[in-house]
Amino acid sequence: MPTGMLQIRQISGHVGSAPGAGVQREEEVCKYIDVTTCIGCKACEVACVEWNDMPFQQTTFDNTYQTMPATAWNYWNLIKFNEQPREDGTLQWLMRKDQCMHCEDPGCLRACPADGAIVQYTNGIVDFQQENCIGCQYCVSGCPFDIPKFNGTTKKVYKCTLCSDRVGQGLEPACIKSCPTGCLKFGTKADMRALADSRARQLREHSGFPNAGVYDPPSIGGTHVIYVLHDVTHPERYGGLPANPTIPPAFTIWKRVAKPIALALALLAAPVAFFHYVMEGPKEPQPPSGPFSTGFGESAPPSGPAEREVPR
Amino acid sequence: MLKDDGSTLCGNWLYSGSWTEAGAMSQRRGTDDPSGLGVYPNWAWSWPANRRVMYNRASCDPSGKPWDAERRQIWWNEPAGRWVGVDVPDFKADSAPKDHMGPFIMNPEGIGRLFGPLAAFQDGPFPEFYEPIESPILNPLHPKQSTNPVVQKFKTPLDKYGSPSEGYTVICTTYRLTEHYHYWTKNNPMNVELVPEPFVEIPVELAGEMGLSGGERVKVSSARGAYIAKAMVTRRIRPMLIDGKKTYQIGIPIHWGYRGIAEDAGRTALTSANLLSPTVIDPNAYTPEFKGFLVKIEKA
Amino acid sequence: MSTAVDRFDEAARAKVGAHARTTIHRDELLRHPAYTRVLHWCVAACFVPALLSGFAVYSPCLYRWVTPLFGGGPMTRLLHPWFSLGFVVFFTLQFLNWLQPMSWTPDDRRWMRRLKQYVSNDEPFEPEYVDFFNAGQKVYFWAIVVSAILFLASGIPMWFPVTFGRILVSIGYVLHDLAGLVMLVGFIVHIYEGTAAEPGTFQSMTRGTVEKRWAWTHHPAWYRRATGRDPRADYADAVARQARSAAAPDQHPPRPS
Fold first, then answer.
1. pTM value surpassing 0.90
2. For the domain with range A8-234+241-247, which CATH number is right: 3.40.190.10, 3.40.50.720, 3.90.1150.10, 3.30.70.20?
3. Is A311 helix (H, G, I), strand (E, B) or coil?
4. List of chains touching A (3+ CB pairs within 8 A)
5. What is the ipTM of this complex?
């Protein structure tokens, strides 16, 4: 839910501008996640469930410490565990906190047809407003990170809100607060990006991780959740993080450019038909009737008594 | 600080002091090292009082002056009447040196020991290595006395011990998870959601030999009982080479064996993992041998 | 088509026809029996809300105006697949009903080459080979068949996106839109052709009959098959009769208006 403190920059399925468009009075926020110091303790998972009052669900053992295979409508934050053997035979146990990436160019918002169901605030947070959601799940297909999840009973879609309610009141998100190792940080995008870059450099120069880097994909304009990875050249090893996330062109070029033009062209058929009638006139049955011809729709009224009835 | 008047709350006394009005102490990242000895008093937090070096009074001579002026941790400050310094004193802070309180506060004599007095340890003045009661090998140091001769044993019918020749060739250890605590978090829906079912961690190589895939049920048996749970097949436990033989180790988290809440009904082990471990008690610390014993494993 | 399908078709026609009545007046022909008419309007009753509810979600410029018709966004989204399924069911029956008269012949290729003349109303008469449905009508029919298949193939993944995955859904999204646009244009043209553009047509789908002069003008080959008579010759007779009644008005009572 939006709070009074947050200005809206983009609205899904909306005609006209958003109230906060073109105005940047507040800093853009960012969640910083250092995967190299995460211990997989799941305090962040618990904090998210507790803060958002989410109902518990039954889980099943699935040969992993990962709580469940993917985020759910009532589980927005999930540590993904991956045992990654190295070429030299040693093992890395990768743990990556998975949640909405709050993209600068959000695929969910692009795909959404419902007015106001998805909004992006001027601080960069992408939030779902379930009261406007129609349950079509286009956002599920628009998202390159497989984040939005549908609830079949309420017929709405849910995801991490970057604690917009807390951020709107000047607090850090619940997950950030709960992290015991400090691998989660929260601040402005500029600050968090600078921190991430220096941490990645430290990993490269001092810790023996030559491929360490920051995951902040430019293919969707950057994200408001960034990762420091041991190996940024292989993000897919960290539980399927896409190397080059993109929004399907169906929701970009097709939806924003081609569709309105195509609709306008299609609707031209109506005035064309009208002007065709005015200019060319109708095709009257031959010979056209005399003075009593109605000239539109029905032809001459029936003449004389009904000739016959058929049961067909 | 925790108080006994009901005004403070603590989930577990081991974490008391880790989160104060100033915030999460474990997230502190102060890199200041005032003593130059690599002691960072403001980096994270050390239970219980952020003391970094135990028995640090011993770094000073009996008069309270540091033995080495270049390497000071704490020292006696006469005007203040207190021990002060870079670290938190592991000592009664206002006990003056002239009162001769010994720095090794956990020993009755107050000083460190080069060997254990006869009454202090059941198994001799010097530490010695012994194999656990169930081991795949004989003690390399003294095979004729492989195990601790004064370890406490019981004589019930369950107190049987197995050996490799009887087929118990897999080493088993037990441990705890982050997501559960002993046996009572099975009653908390959040914990149960994080880790719902008991499991046995098995190396991929052993699973490959057994034709076992993750999630399949396995039966782990020792000379004392059997435990049935799902297999977690993992690369994190490697086979070991012990006395020239490839030996496997498996691990069993302990948190099940009692009834929990509805969420886990019917999906838990109704036997405790410690039915498998031997009730052989360390003669000094009285801890049973939970951490190393022999089992056999098969598909259930 | 197998004979089992034909038998079903015949049985359906008979069942519906048993409860129906079509009155054929003098100078009229039976064009569409009751079964055909009922099916057509059932298709329309499902197609129009499906088209509208689909276009409600098509673009933000339509969303706020069209979704209130269905009771809001969620209800629009909920109803759309059900109207569409109804359309698929009824149109399948209509497909079976009209498969034979809609089959494409060499005459239809000939007709299509004359399309420009047809549109500009160059001649009052259709060529003599034009049978029950002209090629234009057949094009619309087959466009609906193709669109219905596209709608179904793309609509099911969009209805169950988690099962079918992002790629299928985003491809389906585009195909569904294209089919919808084609159907929108076709629908507008169909309404126009069935009402203003060709007087005497609308009643064929309500009352089930058309005037004979309508038939010999627009579907001469069908007129010949249905009556066994020459359409041009009957036209000439009608012109002559009209001239006679104009020349001697008191011999024929004026038509009641």
1. no
2. 3.30.70.20
3. coil
4. B, C
5. 0.86
